[in-house]
Amino acid sequence: MNEKNIESILKEQRSFLPAASFTKAARIKPDDLETLYKEAEADHKGFWAERARRGIQWDKPFSTVLDDSNAPNYAWFTDGELNVSKNCLDVHLDARGDKTAIIFEGEPGDRRTLSYAELTAEVCKFANALTAQGITAGDRVIIYMPMVPEAVIAMQACARIGAVHSVVFGGFSANALRDRIVDAGAKMLITADGGNRGGQIVELKQAADTALTNGCDTIETVIVLRRTAQDVAMHEGRDIWWHDAVDGQPDTCEPVPVNAEHPLFLLYTSGSTGKPKGVQHSSAGYLLHARLTSKWVFDLQDDDIFWCTADVGWVTGHTYVAYGPLAAGATIVMYEGAPVFPDGGRFWKICQELKVTVFYTAPTAIRALMKLGDELPLSYDLSSIRLLGSVGEPINPEAWIWYHEVIGKERCPIVDTWWQTETGGIMLTPLPGVTATKPGSCTRPLPGIVADIVDEEGNTVDSPDAGGYLVIRKPWPAMLRTIWGDNDRYIETYWEKFQNRFYVAGDSAHCDADGFFWIMGRIDDVVNVSGHRLGTMEVESALVAHKRVVEAAVVSRPHEIKGESIFAYVVFRGDRPVGDDEEALEKELRDWVGEQLGAIAKPDGIRFADNLPKTRSGKIMRRLLRAIARGEEITQDTSTLENEAILDQLRGKS
Ligand code: WTA
Description:
The protein is α/β, with parallel strands linked by helices and 654 residues long. The chain is built from 21 helices and 30 strands. Strands 5-4-17-16-18-19-20 form a seven-stranded mixed sheet, sandwiched between helices. The protein has a five-stranded parallel sheet with strand order 7-6-8-11-12, with helices on both faces. A hairpin with a 2-residue loop joins strand 9 (195-197) and strand 10 (200-202). The site of 5'-O-[(S)-ethoxy(hydroxy)phosphoryl]adenosine (WTA) has 22 residues, from helix 12, strand 20, strand 24 and strand 25.
């Protein structure tokens, strides 16, 4: 291996080899990877079975590896039994009970560490509290919390007793929370008085109370963690403080063995149409992938301090905060607040002080911090960092190079990891000790993952650089099992396009001559704002729910920091607002969407129109609207439009 980075003349072809010293110490070396690829290729099922036997402590070993009799509802390790919490906690107690599991830093600056033994005791106490409140295996529990250790404790406690958690991001509004509670039919809600974010208090309990006044009849109990200590209303007979719930509970709790396919969690994610989908994950397959990729991709070694900055409200916070690194016995960092509080050096200060060695974040954060200049990161000692990661959206080469030079000091490999809520864990990624990375490419599928790019007919696109649908040809253990309560939608969304032959990710991609994948973006109407998927349909429904809005169309527009931003076209009841009126209404609508869905869904721009461009069959021409929002030339034929004249108005010309 070459110590120096290879840089060719053509920008797009820059390639960066890991340093020989990195490769030498890495868990996966070039030869190992080749062996793994060969093994997986020769026997796909056998490859995963072997990993599952070695990587999971089973209470009852499995004999069936893959059940494809109900394809595309695949099932893995179907007759095995295990407990996920036991595999994340108890398995470490003998060898490293005193090892730090979590280092937590609150936004106000408070710190707390929990060893594996302490974390296990807290999880057990809370699991006992859940049982005392009548929660049993299979019950759904909603977790709506700030990024504090109790969020992970709650998730692990659910797993310990076989309850199915569904974490709702703390930035979502009362309405979004209510929809998820109702869809999941949840029996319990776990929340906090509030959380700290950007120097403000996020009023979680207040939002929860609003949600619960509105048709969440299945909720019997609300457990409230005291975090910010401001006054909150407690409802007699329904609400109980976390500290009261665990008071007197024993700090041991026998993990309940569940079937390999028992749902570990539901996580709601946006699709192109309709309400959010409750993506359902399994226990064994999910755990296997989470643990394995934590070790392979982040190269977690015993003395590593791993910081994945994602909130537990997103899948990244599930797989690479709450489950994977713990199953791998690592030390993780959790930070409660905003990256720019009190200033843009907060992330780097945490890296310096907690001696973070592996740092995993999103391109939107990298771009935002890059914009603040090099001075801040340069004023901190980042020499503990040895590996960097990126996830959530394509990372543009400029941001990649900045990450590489200013944060990684040209020393640290960067793993650009492609995956989805639905895939459960990382699918396409460099391996840090092996892959010669190219800025902007997530490189190759992991061993055991059979990715491909196909055309409209489902045939492999084999000319380099031609784009197509990103698909996964063979089932893999961590794949989603279904959409909660709507299996038809599962099949329709991910399989039907190519007659159930392979999983359709919904992204377009192309492959270069080296077999490296480049993700080009979503093919459906999903906006990726700051790495968070939002269905344009959801934002449209929220807009139309406003009493003065008749019709709305939402499209995405590139944004320097957020990757994409939301742009909305709105048709008003009555006269089209102009001047000051327009500004005031724009603000009103933005706030309205914020209330309906949460601040991340607020449109960046709104344009009022008398009408929207439609085909003669009444379909809104979204492609046109996208072009207008982006200020692009309209090249398509517009003469088929029912109301061609509207285009000038939409461009702001009349
Ligand atoms: C996008 C987040 C390019 C992609 C783990 C995918 C990426 C969606 C990458 C899933 C990447 C994620 N390069 N695009 N490395 N990672 N995406 O479900 O469009 O929140 O389909 O899961 O994010 O978003 P989700």
